[in-house]
Structures are given as C-alpha cells and as structure tokens.
Amino acid sequence: MTYQNTLFLQSTWNRPIPNFSCGIQKNLVAIIGTLDSETSLQVTNILGLYRIPQVAYCFINDKTHLPFLYQMVPKEAYQFTGIVQLLLRFQWIWVGIVAMDDDKGIHFMQVLTSMFSQNGICTAFTERIPTMVSLFDIIYLMEYTGSMSLSLNMANVIVLSAHIQTAFALFGLMHLAKLGNRAVTAMNKVWILTAEWDFTSNTYQEGLDAQVFSGSLSFAIQSSELSEFQNFLHVLNPQDPKGDGFIRAFWEQAFSCSFPGSNTGEEDREICSGTEKLEDLPGTFFEMRMTVQSYSIYNAVHAIARALNAMYSLRHKHRADGERLHPLKWQLWQLHSFLKTISFNNSAGDEVAFNQNGELAAGFDIINWVTFPNQSFSRVKVGRMNPWAPSSKEVTFNEKVILWQSAFNQVLPLAVCNDNCQPGHSRKMKEGKPFCCYDCDPCPEGKVSDQKDMDDCFKCPEDQYPNKNRYICLPKVPQFLSYEEPLGIALALWALSLSLISVFVLGIFIRYRDTPIVRANNQDLTYSLLISLLLCFLCPLLFIGHPHTVTCYLRQTTFCIIFSIAVSCVLAKTITVALAFTITKPGSKIRKWVGKRLAISVVSSCSFIQVGMCTVWLSMAPPFPDLDTHSLAQEIVLECNEGTTIMFYLVLGYMGVMAMVNFVLAFLVRKLPDSFNEAKFITFSMLVFGSVWVSFIPTYLSTKGKYKVAVEIFSILASSTGMLVCIFFPKCHIIILRPELNHKEQLRKREF
C-alpha cells in the first residue's frame, strides 16, 4: 500500500503511471514525513529512483544507499552517548532496557548494551515488547505480562525505546500489571525515554495513564519557542475557505462537534461555531506551545522552501538574455543538491543544517515529565546534550529542578545491583554475576578506601596510617626518645647519677692514692678506667633527644671507643696480674714489659683497633638522621640510621671479643695471692658485661621505635655499672668503712 500511494504522489492527475510525467502541473518536488522508519524506507526506495528528496522525522540506522533521505533528527549515536552520560552523571549502573521487538529495537539494544559495558554500566535485563496490530497480539501481550513484570522488578531505572505502537503495548502491560496487584512494579521507576517517544507522544495522549511516567527523563530533538506560533494558534479560523483543509477535521475531533455539511457519522453532535478556543483544550490533548513535533515540521518546511528559493535564484541568475524561464521546466532532481547544503537560522535564531549523512546537525534537549492527578502533564526542559562539547561533558542539566516520581520523595533514585560498598571496604566480584554485582570486603590491615565502591584498597602514604575503620589516612605522630617523657627523664637521671657516683669513686681513689690498696692495683689504669666509665655513663645523653647530624655521627662511635678504652684498661689489669708472677722467676725476660709500658701498650693497641674501625665506618657509611615509617603503624620514628649495620655489629663484636678474653684471663688468675686478688672482681664484672650484651642483641632486634634506643642505653648503663660495682665498690668499702684493713700486712692476708 505504501508503494502504491507513493506512486500516486509521484504521478500526476491521480494516474499512477511509473516513469512518465503526464503534465506540467502538480509535479512532486519533495515529501515531508514520515514518523515511522519502516514507512520512510519504503517511500524513499521509490522516490530515490526519481531523485526526489524526502524529509523524515525518524532514525534510520543505515543510510548508505539512501542519499535522497533527509532526517529532521540528529545523529542517533548522539542519543546513545547522551543516555550513557546521563546514567553516569546520576551513577545509575544497574539499568534495564525495553525496546520494540523488531530490527530497530534489536539494533537499539545491541548498541546500548555494548556502550553500557564500555562505560561500567550493567544491563539488568532486556525486554522486547511486541507491536500491537491485531487481536492476536493483544492475547500474546497478556501472556507476556508475567515475564515483563518480573523483569521490571530487577531495576529502578529503565531505558525505553518506543514509537506509538510500542507505547500502546506498554500501557496495556501496565494496566494488566495494575489489575494483578503489581502496580508498584510499573509505577515506581525512572524511565529514560528516547526522542522518538517524545516526538510521537503528542498525537496519542487521551486515555493514557500519564502517572506511570511521572518523573521520567526523555531525550527530545533540540527546539526553541517561537512567539509567532502562539499568535498563529490564536487567530486560527477553521471556517476560512482558504485555510488548511485538515483544520476542520481536527476541530471536530478536538471539540466533539460537527461543521454543517460534514460527514462525521455522528448525528447527535453539536454544531461547531468556529469560535471555540484552542487554549481551552486539556494539555494532554493539545498544547498551545510549540512542541518538538511542531518545531521539526516548521524547520522541514522552511528547509524545502529555502532550497527551492536557492535553486530558483541560481537558475534565474544564469538564464540567457531574452530567454523566458518557465518554473515548471526545472529539473526537479536538482533540488537535492541545494537541500544538501542548506543552512539557515530560523526565527528563533537556531541554525538548521544537515550533516554529510543528511541528518540534522543538532543536539538533544533533556525533558523531565511532570504529571498531575488529573492526568495532565508538563514537559520541563532540565538539560541538554551537546554533541560538540568536550568528551564526557556532552550532557549538562540542572538536577535541582528535576521532579522524581513521588515514591522516591525527591531523593535521587538508586540504580545499583546491590548497596554501595562504604569507605573502608572494597568490591569483590560475585562469581557468575555481572560486574556491577559484588560483595563488600573490609580493607586488609594497613590499607584504606576513602570512597564508595572502590575496586581495591590502597596503602596510605608513608607518613600516614589507616584509622580504625580504614576509610581515612591519619598523619603519623613523630616519635623519638626525648627529655620530656618519663622514660627519657628516668634514663637521663640514671646516667647522671652513675656519673656522679663514678666521680665520687674517682675522688676517693685520688684522695687515698697513697694507701696500699690503691697503690697495689696500678693507679694509672685505675684512674683511666674510672674516667672511661664516667664518660660511658655520659654517652647515653647523646642517644636522648631529637636526632641531629652531629649526635648521630657521634653517639655510636663515641660510645664504642670509650667503652673499648674501659675494657682495654680492665684487660691491661688482668694481663698485669697474669704476668706478675712470671717476672718473679729468676732470669725472666719479660720483666721489662711489666709496669706502665705494658698497660699503655695494651690500652693503646686495643683502643687503636677500635678507633680504626670507627674511622672506616665514618668514612664509608656514616650514621645520619632518618625517618622510619615502617616499624610502627601509627608513628614515625625519628632515629639515627647506622649507615651500615655490618660496621655497627663489628665494633660491638670487637668489644665482645675483648670482654671474653678478659673474662678467661681473669678466671684463670682469680686464685693468685691476696695482693693481686683484683682478678676475681674483674671476672664478675666481665660476667655481667657479657650477660648484658648477649641479651642486648635479640632484644635490640625485636624492639622498635624509641624503645630500641632505650634498650641500648640500658645496656650501656648496665654493663658500665657492672664494671664500676664489681671492680671498685669492694675497694671503696675497705677505704671508707674498713680503713683498718687498708695496710700492707692486711693486704697480704685478705682478698679485696
């Protein structure tokens, strides 16, 4: 039937004779219409043979072989992009798709589903609704209702691609759902409607349940208001003999009346006066403002008219002198080239032009459907899709003016497969489910997530740590052993107290330097040992406080050198005791080594080795201030980095070797005569020294932060105290409390 009617239009005088022009009047120049893509394709297949252009209002997927078809709609890809961007702006990622059960609907689903996957949106379901054209289709639709209702329950947001036939099927489905107590299924949804729906909804509005689509968002061909259109409607007279012949039929249908002589088939109708007011009609039946449909028709008519004018002007300009140009002798196929390049601004100031594919070079408006209890509704323009905007910014809208379906209480509807994963959790995909469906797992120890629906938790920067709920990173507190905290104060007081005690002991030995007990144990070594112990007690003060370059440079090396001197002094005492009896034998060759020379040699050589190792240490990899952000979870340890742990343990090991040699020698000579009984006390002091430093190593390695420094300070003070107490306290006891024992005669009888 479509092909036959097209031939009637193309032929003249109502005689459908293909390929013949039977007159010079009423030749077809172009066709404006239709709304349906299938009909448009059938029409253009015939008209294309004669190069007659057609201006349609529908989307055509493939126009490769349709050069004479023009569309008063933008490129469909723009609408797909707009839908995706709109969903992303509202963070709707669990969306259903409903389309017609035909080639166009299948194409729509395939393209949109693919774009959803590429942009992180999951397709909750896809449903194809049959077109109702017969009673059989209605029966099939009733059987289809149950399946459709189950699908609608799966998502809050649904994209609908439909023309008027699909609309009828969908409304029938909603009515059946309502009868089956499933009204909530259909009502409490956000429908994303395509431009085709908005364009065709003007003609068929009576009797439809507008509440179903309350709060919906639709794409509409970009349009503007024309003030002249309002004036045109106000002065429209259906009884004007020169007016549009279709006006009378529309008037009779709109006002349920009949003009005299009309053949409406209804005898009881009132007579149309022609003075009825269009503005009195309900908005669901007729809108006084310029709709998208009216705006598109207006632009289509102007495009054809301007193309004809351009063609006529060009032919008139180039005609030969004296030759009379008859308009009806034009080659009508030439209109195509003029229409293809047409570009003008309409009375609203909007540019009207076609792209290279014959599609309208324009964007889309985003419309919010607001319905009222009396089934009337209003379309509110809330945004725009500009295809020439930067990527991901094509869609702009004012969210504050959008009115959602009443069930949502003006709260932005959610469209997710499951609840969002809150900060402090990460998403874990569910096996066998779309990627939008996931479980929420708490972040592991040491990691956080500061946003919703994060795929992975992440580690905080080195100077921060996760809070208890692991959704924010808190700054770590700097930590070091300071003089302002109880532990630092206690260790400092302990060090100073022992220093005073060592000074007191040194004073006693200096005051009683001429007594036998002081003279019997090598005064020079005794003074050197006491001074070394005094400095050892002061060394911990370098470990307390904020680490600086100088203190880091000095703390370990100073302690190691001073402690080596102290241990070497004790070793010199022990060697002196061991050799003392050897030189008493007649003819001994080592007599000349016993005395100050021996002590100086032992102390100098042992100390020189330690000084050499410390020099190598400082020259190769000296200690430096450092920040330890890994040892403690919530604190940054301000410490001195040893530079090289090898050298650190090497100098400690050297002191351990000297202490071991000292212990062995002292143990061997512990039962020498009474005047040389200092070896016994040296044995105990080295036993304390060894015990402290053997326990120091595992404790030091297992301790973190400022307590690591405290462990080393404790080891220094404990080992030094052991030497001070074991070696000097017995002598101080005799000097101060038992002076009667401080004589040569007693020295030979007792052990000190």
UniProtKB/TrEMBL annotation:
Q: What does the organism's lineage look like at the top?
A: Eukaryota, Metazoa, Chordata, Craniata, Vertebrata
Report domain G-protein coupled receptors family 3 profile positions: 487-751
Tell me the Pfam families matching this sequence: 7tm_3, ANF_receptor, NCD3G
Provide the membrane topology annotation. Multi-pass membrane protein
UniProt keywords, alphabetically: Cell membrane, G-protein coupled receptor, Glycoprotein, Membrane, Receptor, Signal, Transducer, Transmembrane, Transmembrane helix
Q: Where in the cell is it found?
A: Cell membrane
**What is a GO molecular function of this protein?**
G protein-coupled receptor activity
Name of the coding gene: LOC129339428
Name-wise, this protein is Vomeronasal type-2 receptor 26-like
PROSITE patterns cross-referenced by the UniProt entry: G_PROTEIN_RECEP_F3_3 (PS00981), G_PROTEIN_RECEP_F3_4 (PS50259)
Q: Does the keyword Transferase apply?
A: no
The Swiss-Prot or TrEMBL record describes its family as follows:
Belongs to the G-protein coupled receptor 3 family.
Q: Name one GO cellular component term.
A: plasma membrane
Q: Where are the transmembrane segments?
A: 487-512, 524-544, 556-581, 602-620, 646-669, 681-701, 713-737
